[in-house]
Every structure is written in structure tokens, then in C-alpha cells.
């Protein structure tokens, strides 16, 4: 197992304490937080960290493929350190996001798409939208 610092270094990102803290937070928290949530969680321990730093850091982690950026229909993006192919289940109302191991057979679609459109597919993002029980109760 590579340490967080090694993973950052392998992507040519300097392993600063703040970068390590942000990436580690995303690894530990699988609820797909946005930059504001990460900032709020870490600012006590890292008083020198600004919200702008968090934005810059998640953007650079995204650029090197260590985290994926998810748009759940809010003003800000959400971040996920789990980068294997997986689907997301999103409550439209409270924007809770769950991971779902994609067990839908996408290989067949990929073959079809590649031959029909002459495009080499390298990613597939799947989203399921709905209403969670809590939100359904609130509406009732
Ligand atoms: Zn909900
Ligand atoms: Zn996810």
C-alpha cells in the first residue's frame, strides 16, 4: 500500500501537509463532500488553510486523477477519492450521494458505442436519482 504522500508524489504533486490532509479526508469520508465541507472539517486542525486552498487542492487532485468530481446539481462540485468505476445514487432533495458498485453490464454497450461512433470509450459515469426516505417523510 502506498502512503498518501507517495501517491501524491507519484502524480508529481508535492506532498504538503494541507494536500495530505485534504486527500486523506476524502479517502476517509465517502459521503462525497464539497470543498466547503472539507474546509469546515479541517480548518480547526489547519488554521492556515483557506477555502481557496481547498478549491485549488481538489482541482489539482482531480486533474491528476486521484479524485473524481461529481456534479449533483448544486452550485458546487462534490469530490470522491474512490476512482474505480462506480455508479452514484443521489437524492434529488437533500443531495445525499451514495456509491453503488456498478454491476450493470456496460461492456456490451461499450463495444456497441465503439463500433457505432468510432470512439474509444475510457469512462462511463452512471447516476441514479431519487428521493430518500427522510425526504419523502418531510414531504408527506
Ligand atoms: Zn434526501
Ligand atoms: Zn462515489
Task: Write up what this structure looks like.
With 140 residues, the chain is of the alpha+beta class. It folds into 2 domains: 1-83, Arc Repressor Mutant, subunit A, CATH 1.10.10.10; 84-140, Ferric-uptake regulator, C-terminal dimerisarion domain (Dna Ligase, domain 1). The protein is 41% helix and 14% strand. The chain has 6 helices and 5 strands. A 3-stranded mixed beta sheet has the order 4-3-5, with no helix packed on it. The longest helix has 13 residues, at 51-63. It starts with a helix and ends with a helix. The structure holds zinc ion (2 copies). Residues 91, 93-94, 96, 132, 134-135 line the site of one zinc ion.
Any idea how many domains? 2
Overall mean pLDDT score? 93
The run of helices and strands is HHHHEEEEHEH
**By CATH's scheme, which homologous superfamily of the largest domain applies?**
Winged helix-like DNA-binding domain superfamily/Winged helix DNA-binding domain
Number of strands: 5
Largest sheet: 3 strands, mixed
Quickly give the structural class: alpha+beta
Molecules bound to protein: zinc ion
Question: Please, how many helices?
Answer: 6
The CATH architecture of the largest domain can be given as Orthogonal Bundle
**Uncertain segments of ≥5 residues (pLDDT<50)?**
none
Q: Look at the structure and give the CATH class of the largest domain.
A: Mainly Alpha
Radius of gyration: 17 Å
Principal-axis shape equals flat
- Percent helix range: 40-55%
List the strand order in the largest sheet: 4-3-5
Kindly report how far apart the N and C termini lie.
48 Å
The CATH topology of the largest domain comes to Arc Repressor Mutant, subunit A
**β-strand amount:** 5-15%
Amino acid at each position: 500500500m502506498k502512503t498518501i504522500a507517495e501517491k501524491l508524489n507519484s502524480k508529481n504533486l508535492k506532498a504538503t501537509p494541507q494536500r495530505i490532509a485534504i486527500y486523506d479526508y476524502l479517502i476517509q469520508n465517502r459521503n462525497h463532500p464539497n470543498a466547503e465541507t472539507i474546509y469546515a472539517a479541517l480548518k480547526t486542525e489547519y488554521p492556515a488553510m483557506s477555502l481557496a486552498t481547498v478549491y485549488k487542492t481538489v482541482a489539482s487532485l482531480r486533474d491528476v486523477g486521484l479524485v473524481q468530481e461529481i456534479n449533483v446539481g448544486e452550485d458546487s462540485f462534490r469530490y470522491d477519492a474512490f476512482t474505480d468505476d462506480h455508479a452514484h445514487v443521489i437524492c434529488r432533495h437533500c443531495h445525499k450521494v451514495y456509491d453503488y458498485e456498478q454491476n450493470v453490464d456496460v461492456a456490451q454497450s461499450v463495444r456497441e458505442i465503439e463500433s457505432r461512433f468510432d470512439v474509444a470509450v475510457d469512462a462511463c459515469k452512471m447516476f441514479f436519482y431519487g428521493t430518500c426516505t427522510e425526504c419523502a417523510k418531510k414531504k408527506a
